[in-house]
Amino acid sequence: MSFLQQKSKIIDWMKKNLFGSWINAIITCLFAIIIIFIAKAVLKFIFVTAKWDVIPANLKILMVGQYTASEVWRVWLSLSVAVFLLGVLWGVKRGVIKTVSFTIVAIFAIILLLPFTSIATKIWAAVQILLTFAGFWMGNKFSFVKRYHLAGWLISVPVILILLNGVGNMKDVNSNLWGGFLLTVLIAVVDIVFSFPLGILLALGRRSKLVVVRWFSIIYIEVIRGVPLITVLFAAQLLLPLFLGNGLELNNVLRVMIGFTLFNAAYVAETVRGGMQIIPQGQYEAAQALGLNYVQRMTFVIMPQALRSVVPALVGSVIEVFKDTSLVAIVSLMDLLGIAKRVVANPQFLGRQMEVFLFVAAIFFVICTVMSKISKHMEISSSYGKN
Amino acid sequence: MNRKTTTPLWKNKKVIPIILQAAFLVVLILLAVFFISNASRGLQKIGIKLGFDFLNSTAGFSIDDRLIDYTPSDNFGRALLVGLFNTLKVGLVGIVISGILGLFIGIGRLSSNWLVKKITGGYVEIIRNTPLLIQIFILYFAVFLPFPHIERNINFKNIIFFSNRGTAIPWFTANQSSGIWLIFLLIGLAAAVVFWKVMLKKQVESGKSMHPMLWSLGVVLIAVIAAYAVTSSPPVQLSLPEINKLAFKGGYVLSSEFASILCGLFIYHSAFIAEIVRAGIMAVPKGQIEATKALGMKKGATMRLVILPQAFRVIIPSVTSQFLNLFKNSTLAIAVGYTDLFSIGNTIINQTGQSIQIMILMASIYLIVSLVISFLMNCFNNYYKLVER
């Protein structure tokens, strides 16, 4: 009986959603045929044709590039710092961070369970999982952690950079050797961290009453937004050494980071400006009436409100930045995609382009999907406040 | 005692802004001087002169993909022009295809058909969350390049050929009667529009069905018959591709480079446009759709006459920026070796070392084209803007 009921329910659902009218039925059949063909081809490739052994054979180089093999523990340690901080954030904020933490734990669990990863990798992956939960526990339990956890993020960036580069007795690993996924993440993080304050300054400049500052900001923002990112990256590679002269020697990675930051600052500025524009004039006037000066008005009244309203948009731009980092492969940096290109060019792995690039695409896909979920969640929760 | 209270200089509301701006200007100028002096010293050291004279010297490299005549003995300026045309080609074709594809996918995401909704949704999610450059690499290195050598090409009923030299598709070639056909067709179309308007007006006034669509179709048909009667030949010849001595003959050959950059661009940006279209359609108030139902309008007519015109107002500004992004992203062509403006510029930098001038040239050309595109889209926007009565 219940089976029959269920069956009729399914038929009803299909009638409504797939075969509502004869046009609908034709469309359904057409799409079904197309999707079956595609699915068949994709599944056949993934499970039959593809030779996935190229991925484990190159996993180290894809992840950290030419980073000295004996020093890879420093990368893991840096990761631990970030993961621990994320756990703390989860303990303090809950909400969407929970999903993020679980995704990260799941990724490490997969690494732990994969057959081809080394023992050291497995141990490190287990440590990351434990640290996530330890962070959660601490963030949940101690109030001083709750108060200062944001400072932890700020400190972590230079700490991680120093750790990766080597300090004191540690072996020096030049940033020229950083590569793979590590470099992708580093470029993205450095870009976001530095372009954010620069973008806020530009947004303030664009709305400033000082004519010179305003015009400078407008021209800067519009020119940067009008040219492709690749031009800026090439300019950073080719022109920066020329302009800075011989006194300042910058390596490839730093130059690209500067180019990225200068580029992205213009986009951040426009987003922040959008947030400033929706703040009612009364707020400015009230702040002025309280006798606050310009800096106080902006830092304590305008910016907190403006930034809060554009946080989802900023997360969206973080996704764009993360995807854009793949462009550094064109200026011959060995980021994740650059390494992938090199692996493909290796005669030992001839004809494995699809496998390698799909693997890289999958990494980007997982990270970007998680971030876009965060952004969507924030949009919804910020719109609750308005009602 | 008559003491005049004067505000000190550092608190004077009129003086402070001037001082601040002057300080800002001084810093800017100092920076500029620092940069320029460094650059000129560096250029002197390697013996490169500024100026655009080098554009007149012989290029010496060949370009396979081109729309205008070019030989290696032409100068750099000509090579850049070839690149500009290539950029415009990939940009314009990409904009048209991604716009149309994005519109349909966006509508598909709101379809009542569950399967269509899920498939379009999956497409958008997958494409939006992976970098464009990886998609282009997959298309170029894993799809178009591994096609077999031209001798062992994969062909589809001898109509479409796939090989590592490129993809050949059937194309049309003009003959001597094409001009006459064009004139007749233009006249026919213009007459059709007039007939359609007149008949529609009559239909609205009289309330009787006057079949404006049939009328205008008939007018076009008459024009076609007349043109055939005059020229007694079809307007264009269909040219099928064939293989002749390891090269394609006839048809239209899309080089692997062009095909992968074009496919990459329109696949990536159509997903973004689909999201914009979806948001735009969802922004149309529900009452509008209910009103069309109450009036007894058909589904297609509702979409065409009520929903899309209103949605376009929301859609156009965002789609404009997507088109601009597509145009700017066409510079990724350099990654697969398609000879667009940027990759030719890069070749010239490698040959001559004139990096500053080429970079300035590139930036200004991309800026100008971006401005033109946004100007055109603004005109379109004004056309669709809400008319206040």
Written account of the structure:
The complex is a heterodimer of chains A (387) and B (389). The longest helix of chain A has 34 residues, at 353-386. Chain A is built from 16 helices and no strands. The radius of gyration of chain A is 25 Å and the shape is globular. Chain A is mainly alpha-helical and 387 residues long. Chain A starts with a helix and ends with a helix. In chain A, helix 5 (96-113) runs antiparallel to helix 6 and helix 8 (180-206) runs antiparallel to helix 15 (336-345). Chain A has three domains: 2-49, no CATH class; 56-66 and 177-387, MetI-like fold, CATH 1.10.3720.10; 68-172, no CATH class. By secondary structure, chain B is of the alpha+beta class. Chain B has a domain at 43-151 and 256-389: MetI-like fold (Orthogonal Bundle), CATH 1.10.3720. Chain B is 65% helix and 7% strand. Chain B has eleven helices and eight strands. Chain B has helices at 15-46, 76-109, 114-128, 132-144, 178-206, 212-231, 256-282, 286-295, 299-329, 341-352, 355-384, and strands spanning 154-156, 160-163, 166-169, 171-174, 236-239, 242-243, 248-249, 252-254. In chain B, the strands form three sheets. A four-stranded antiparallel beta sheet of chain B has the order 1-2-3-8. In chain B, strands 4-5 form a two-stranded antiparallel ribbon. In chain B, strand 2 (160-163) and strand 3 form a beta hairpin. The model of chain B has no long low-confidence stretch (mean pLDDT 85). At the A-B interface, helix 2, helix 9, helix 10, helix 11 and helix 14 of A face helix 1, helix 3, helix 4, helix 10 and helix 11 of B.
